What we know:
- The complex is a heterodimer of chains A (530) and B (308).
- Chain A is an alpha+beta fold.
- Chain A contains 20 helices and twelve strands.
- Chain A has a five-stranded mixed beta sheet.
- Chain B has a domain at 70-269: MetI-like (MetI-like fold, Orthogonal Bundle).
- In chain B, 69% of the residues lie in helices and 1% in strands.
- Chain B is built from 14 helices and two strands, in the order H-H-E-E-H-H-H-H-H-H-H-H-H-H-H-H.
- Chain B has a two-stranded antiparallel sheet.
- At the A-B interface, helix 1, helix 3, helix 18 and helix 19 of A face helix 3, helix 6, helix 8, helix 10 and helix 13 of B.
Amino acid sequence: xxxxxxxxxxxxxxxxxxxxxxxxxxxxxxxxxxxxxxxxxxxxxxxxxxxxxxxxxxxxxxxxxxxxxxxxxxxxxxxxxxxxxxxxxxxxxxxxxxxxxxxxxxxxxxxxxxxxxxxxxxxxxxxxxxxxxxxxxxxxxxxxxxxxxxxxxxxxxxxxxxxxxxxxxxxxxxxxxxxxxxxxxxxxxxxxxxxxxxxxxxxxxxxxxxxxxxxxxxxxxxxxxxxxxxxxxxxxxxxxxxxxxxxxxxxxxxxxxxxxxxxxxxxxxxxxxxxxxxxxxxxxxxxxxxxxxxxxxxxxxxxxxxxxxxxxxxxxxxxxxxxxxxxxxxxxxxxxxxxxxxxxxxxxxxxxxxxxxxxxxxxxxxxxxxxxxxxxxxxxxxxxxxxxxxxxxxxxxxxxxxxxxxxxxxxxxxxxxxxxxxxxxxxxxxxxxxxxxxxxxxxxxxxxxxxxxxxxxxxxxxxxxxxxxxxxxxxxxxxxxxxxxxxxxxxxxxxxxxxxxxxxxxxxxxxxxxxxxxxxxxxxxxxxxx
Amino acid sequence: xxxxxxxxxxxxxxxxxxxxxxxxxxxxxxxxxxxxxxxxxxxxxxxxxxxxxxxxxxxxxxxxxxxxxxxxxxxxxxxxxxxxxxxxxxxxxxxxxxxxxxxxxxxxxxxxxxxxxxxxxxxxxxxxxxxxxxxxxxxxxxxxxxxxxxxxxxxxxxxxxxxxxxxxxxxxxxxxxxxxxxxxxxxxxxxxxxxxxxxxxxxxxxxxxxxxxxxxxxxxxxxxxxxxxxxxxxxxxxxxxxxxxxxxxxxxxxxxxxxxxxxxxxxxxxxxxxxxxxxxxxxxxxxxxxxxxxxxxxxxxxxxxxxx
Lengths: 530, 308
């Protein structure tokens, strides 16, 4: 009898074990699929017999190789077809094939780090200031390209202007190939123009007019949330507000502030009177109900909330993204309208995008660096490669009408939308195709061109190795004590700020700020900005 | 006592059996033991210039610093263990009682339906759970506040009440998970021989006495083993649950932050191999000590019930 029970127990146990094993398997395959692609090196073996490549550059192409190309985001549906076509050309041109890998947007930052630090087979990878290009380059994750460029990609070396090569240099070496397309990614107010006209509200050009607009929406449209912020209030509220109101030189971290006009004067902003005043502004907005009491837990994107009409303004967005939002809104609600006022027009200056903003680098342990660079040259400078990887197949995915790009079908039926490969970095202004609505963006750019000044912040490469632990600890304190303050959830703003400063100092804020300041001043001096 | 023979003799005697064991051993060796070399990452300064792990500079415990720098390590450990103990105790109490009740129900159709309904939430993803929770409790349009307003009372902002979330997180965890362990208990009740119950009935035991004196003691084995399994993961917390339900809302961190969410947030900005490994090592060592202790205690009480 006891044996019988024992047996039943065994069955149950093996069931449990099997289930946990299954669970483990599935989670493994999830993460595995994204981070570790099967190594399909065809470096040795399948060398085509006597198929001599026609590449002009002076590199050795006698061995067939497969290049591993990594980009962030989601792969378009038609990528395999595009890849097939590219490979057909590439075998002829460079005796190589390429595999386009995409990380998806889920945990891309961890995946990015793992790709670089685990010695995986990666030959080309996207870089930007928001993927910490400067820090990675400084710590030696990428291959210096200075000498390689003239050998493997002479055309590309010519194509990118010298001052851009200069601008992406970290410690005197080039580590990435910058994009040459000039755009602005600076902020500007976004609001519902149809509602503004309907209720005769002022056009938001500064904070008082913006507040008046929000108030008008609150009064007249009680079901619409006047301002969309989302959970990342550090970026959507503080950074934007600082960019506009205090003309901060860039999104400086650790509560530091320096104005664009006086960059050497780097001071602690957190805990200052200015900070307190700004927090009171946010609190005031929250109290008046301009944004939700649960903004920190919001998961919908701000743009989506504008599109579906649950919110009526954003404090800041860049011109291109504003245009996307407008287009998507128009396709759903043709009678609605969205308008934009770039901060630059009020403040009298605007910085065009820094060359670091979009680029491609070759990781240090790539064994096919020459071929990778030569391939990247083709992507940028060869019209066939460029058009195919930016817009898909002409006639199938898009058509050109009066010089404008026109998508075949719509987003759901078309397997390759415009720039679906996230090809921001290999955009070539000579070949670029735009939708008619881009004219609006271009008009904004033209206006900003009149007040343009160089970006002096993005070229700075912070080295945080000496305060890594403090940095991580500070991040926690910021989330726990500063975020609720910014979202207007703390009744006593002054007391809340005091608590935050206490905790921040405990985590090592002063040490971080001091070290950062030292590096910053040194950077300004070396680059002749100071 | 049999005379002790050498390992080689044992291997030779049961070579077929050992051969059958080999794939499993290899599986664990490759997937669970070899990666442990990576623990060394916790003690070095990661850099791109060294081609392998052992060339990197040894920094001792520096990578562990961030865990206590913000002064939250104790609170995090308490939160993590506290929640898990609540989960383990409540899930077991609830699932055992419901399993006993269900086993007494003879209506096959009703039993199956109930079982399925209780089991289904287990398949709801945490992301969806977070959306459900947000729609229930958000201040402006949440179900709860809409109801309160209709009833004429003041709306409440749950997302600003840290204490409430201790309760909410436990409730949603139970909702999602207790069906799963209930099915396991139900299966093990099915395995209890009917003879016991018949004998008890003849002796005049009522339904409660039967449950108390037969079913419960018979479930002890399953309970102990499920308990040990659960304890092994006590330091791991339930990352998805906490992260999805609380998200970036710093106001709630004092009561809802566990080690996993803390580490995740720290390393999102500074994804450093050394620090990430250090956090993992801390959790593993703590979990190891815990399971050894509990297993030891169980061994002392009753050797048969111990896991090893």
